[in-house]
Amino acid sequence: MKIDVILDARSSAAELTELGRLAEEVGIRGVWVSSLLDSRDPFTNLSVLAAATKRLLLGAIAVNPFDMHPVRIASSLMTLNELAGGRARIVIGGGGEALGAVGIEPLRRVRAVAECVDIIKAAADGKNVDYKGELYEVHNLRFSWLRSPPPPVFVGASMAQMLRMAARVADGSMMSDMPVPLAAAAIDTLDQALKENGRQRPGFQTNAFAAWHIYDDHELAVKEARQWLVLRGIFRPWVLSAFLDADDVELVMRSAGAFWTAFR
């Protein structure tokens, strides 16, 4: 098992760089920075961190093809990869509930993510890309300036359809905030899908995003953990039902407003 850390996407470039350098010094493999509506741009901040580190892997998570076109995602990723000397990576996701804040309905998420991964991986070869999918088209695209090896492209996947698609097109996957029984079931689904696609897990990176809030001050840790609950997959009944009974699931779902207030 290898350890990465996910840094607060709302941190400044200076704060991110300080923490990233510390992570490299203590042997952390890499850092991730989320792409949130109210955050600083992860690619820009990670570019600053790239100049201050030598070994640390750098990734944006989970960028989606609904509020950022796949070609723009590819360009940002390849630029970061160039600045980092081949240390960049990315997680492509289907867009969370926050898309509703900008009036975007993420239809056909699995198809959109699959096509986004296809476009990024094709562009990463530095060859001319002509792509016609069901949702996205790209014509005469070529990043002639590429010199670094292609960065790994992961899919943010916790449910069966997205996991099966990830096994087919991606370099790895990242599940998020999964209780142990659901995580085990997801791994089983992934293993079966990899087998069906003639692939094996040793060549496919499986990542799990889990939130830890560690402080000397216990009250501060609890406060931060409560604040971020709203983004930890807590408003998905199929996740909640793994450890709550039906009445408690209903109570949590009815209380969404209070969780969002705490986050702000």
Poorly predicted runs are: none
Structure classification: alpha/beta
Write the CATH fold name of the largest domain: TIM Barrel
Instruction: Identify the CATH homologous superfamily of the largest domain.
Output: Luciferase-like domain
> How would you write the strand order of the largest sheet?
1-2-3-4-7-8-9
**What count of helical segments does DSSP give?**
10
Distance between the termini: 34 Å
Nearest-integer average pLDDT: 93
Radius of gyration: 19 Å
User: Strand share of the residues?
Assistant: 15-25%
> Helix content range of the residues, please?
40-55%
Number of domains: 2
- What CATH architecture label of the largest domain applies? Alpha-Beta Barrel
Number of strands: 9
Write structural notes for this entry.
- The longest helix has 17 residues, at 180-196.
- 30% of the residues are buried.
- Helix 3 (70-83) packs across helix 4 (109-123) and helix 4 packs parallel to helix 5 (160-169).
- It is built from ten helices and nine strands.
- Helix content is 42%, strand content 17%.
- The model has no long low-confidence stretch (mean pLDDT 93).
- With 264 residues, the chain is an alpha/beta fold.
- It has two domains: 4-156, TIM Barrel (Alpha-Beta Barrel), CATH 3.20.20; 215-264, no CATH class.
Detail the topology: elements first, then pairings.
Blueprint: E1 4-7, H1 13-25, E2 30-34, H2 42-52, E3 57-63, H3 70-83, E4 88-92, H4 109-123, E5 129-132, E6 137-141, E7 153-156, H5 160-169, E8 172-176, H6 180-196, E9 205-209, H7 218-228, H8 237-240, H9 246-254, H10 256-263
Parallel strand pairs: 1-2, 2-3, 3-4, 4-7, 7-8, 8-9
Antiparallel strand pairs: 5-6
